[in-house]
Amino acid sequence: MATTQQSSTKHEILEYLLKHSRATAFELAEILNISPQAIRRHLKDLEAEKLILYSSIQEGMGRPQHVYHLSREGRDRLQRGDSYGEFAVSLLDTLAETVGRDQVSTILRKQWERKAQEYRDRLGKGSLKERVENLVELRKAEGFMAECHPVESNESESDRFILMEHNCAISNVAESFPSICGHELEMFAAVLCDCTVERTHWIINGEHRCGYLVQGRKPCAELD
């Protein structure tokens, strides 16, 4: 039981660092409601597993503080289906060698068009808020650490939300075929076709999450 609890706490630390990029031991202890001593033990274990790194910062006249962040291995630990991702990259590389990268891009576009139709069928006809929340749940089921938040605005004529994904369940594919991220943006725009969808953050650009601004505009027609 204790081992399971320790594993759960370590996973919570990794998830917090993934979402917030960095934190001190004191901040983690407060957020997770456990003692600083216990947090330091977990951090030491995670550092030994090479899942986290730290840098020292000096604030005032006191001792330097350690600020922790995920290592590449730590980020990978939170990705799902890495072995499938490696297989997908190998398969796409083989296709690129056989039919050319332009044809692979066309294949990926067709895949996202199918996915967009599947999402739209499952999201239903509710309000934009309900559909964005349902989309978040679908993405979570596929291995994405997704969430959404309303955007405060003085403009009353449209709903606005930020859709965030703190990891990339297809990161291996995206690194080798970055065009897939463009197709993903097109997919969200097709799924929420009464909205404008703009990318605000991008993991491939070195940011710690992908983000999309979703803003309602007009009713949409059925996909072809």
Automatic annotation (TrEMBL):
InterPro entries from the UniProt entry: ArsR-like_HTH, SUF_FeS_clus_asmb_SufR_cyano, WH-like_DNA-bd_sf, WH_DNA-bd_sf
**What domain of life?**
Bacteria
A Pfam match: HTH_24
Q: Which PANTHER family did the record assign?
A: SLL0088 PROTEIN, TRANSCRIPTIONAL REGULATORY PROTEIN
The name under which this protein is listed is Iron-sulfur cluster biosynthesis transcriptional regulator SufR
Gene encoding this chain? Answer: sufR
